[in-house]
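Researcher: We plan to redesign the surface later, but first we want a full-length starting point. Tokens attached.
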């Protein structure tokens, strides 16, 4: 069975590469000094094309380093989640335990630099990771312990202050999303839990000079519909309760959230 997310331009890259002194067609302006990075899902192991979705692939970051009119290197690296490390036969990359979010899949959606750090990002209360200048994985990242329970893949940078503004949703926050401001030094200086009407996948928001605009959209996760699909009739009531907790219709109790790593 074919799967559009496993073919053509979406086909997984099967190896990591390091290429130096890249050949250039044309001219690279000498004032360009930095890296061009991209992140995306790239499954590391064989997967079933009948069930695979793009959102669930392991994260892989690609980068090109430009300096002095040259392309100094190209690298692509899988983000070393525990799953990826096991697949590569490597020890897991871990730092001191932090409640950085759920390790359900890799940080496979975005990559940016902030406060001198390179961050691989994902949504839904999933763990974010810090990378080195050369794209090797340092480990999970929670903004120096100031932001817990995951972040978002799509923060917005204030051009005047250099701060990162974000609205984060996760499966454990109940009918709330979290607005946060990360200062230029890489620490959360403000977090606010905001009640919304359901459990939306709040993928984006708008930032103006004086306001943050949330999109509390009518498309939400529906635990009743999910239970009717996955459970036999006798188990649908408890399944609805469990799914409601998981997708945020009710807030999971703090002791449970502490166990799974979300606050």
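Model: Full-length starting sequence:
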């Amino acid at each position: 069975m074919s799967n559009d997310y496993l073919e053509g331009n979406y086909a997984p890259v099967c190896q990591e590469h390091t290429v130096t002194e890249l050949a250039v067609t044309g001219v690279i302006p000498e004032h360009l000094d930095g890296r061009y990075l991209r992140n995306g899902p790239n499954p590391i192991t064989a997967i079933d094309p009948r069930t695979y979705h793009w959102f669930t692939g392991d994260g892989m970051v690609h980068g090109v380093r430009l300096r002095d009119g040259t392309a100094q290197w190209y690298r692509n690296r899988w983000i070393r989640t525990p799953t990826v490390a096991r697949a590569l036969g490597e020890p897991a990359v871990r730092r001191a335990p932090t409640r950085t979010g759920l390790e359900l899949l890799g940080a496979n959606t975005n990559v940016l630099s902030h406060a001198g750090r390179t961050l691989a990002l994902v949504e839904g209360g999933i763990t974010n990771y810090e990378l080195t200048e050369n794209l090797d994985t340092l480990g999970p990242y929670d903004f120096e312990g100031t932001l817990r329970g995951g972040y978002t893949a799509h923060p917005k940078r204030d051009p005047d202050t250099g701060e990162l503004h974000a609205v984060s949703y996760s499966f454990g926050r109940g009918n709330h999303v979290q607005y946060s401001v990360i200062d230029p030094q890489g620490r959360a200086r403000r977090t606010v839990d905001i009640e919304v009407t359901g459990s939306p996948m709040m993928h984006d928001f708008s930032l103006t000079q004086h306001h943050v605009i949330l999109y509390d959209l009518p498309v939400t996760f529906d635990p009743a519909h999910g239970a009717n699909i996955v459970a036999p009739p006798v188990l649908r009531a408890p399944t609805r309760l469990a799914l409601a907790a998981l997708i945020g219709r009710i807030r999971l109790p703090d002791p449970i959230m502490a166990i799974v790593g979300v606050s």
